[in-house]
Give the backbone structure.
Amino acid sequence: MTKEKGKKFLGILFDCCNVYRRIYINRDKTAYEGRCPMCYREVSVKIGPEGSSSRFFTAR
């Protein structure tokens, strides 16, 4: 994944390996998707009208 200037992301702390990583919005703009850089556990955060304004989360 390339990091483009101004590309939307969420900050995720992966509890599985205690590591922080940015995940980026998918091509369809329906969710933020990514993987833990150590164990490759997948995470997906859906985008919706009743969402959160937070930019940082913990994946458990």
Notes: The two ends are 23 Å apart (CA to CA). Strands lie at 9-14, 19-25, 31-35, 42-46, 56-59. The chain has no helices and five strands.
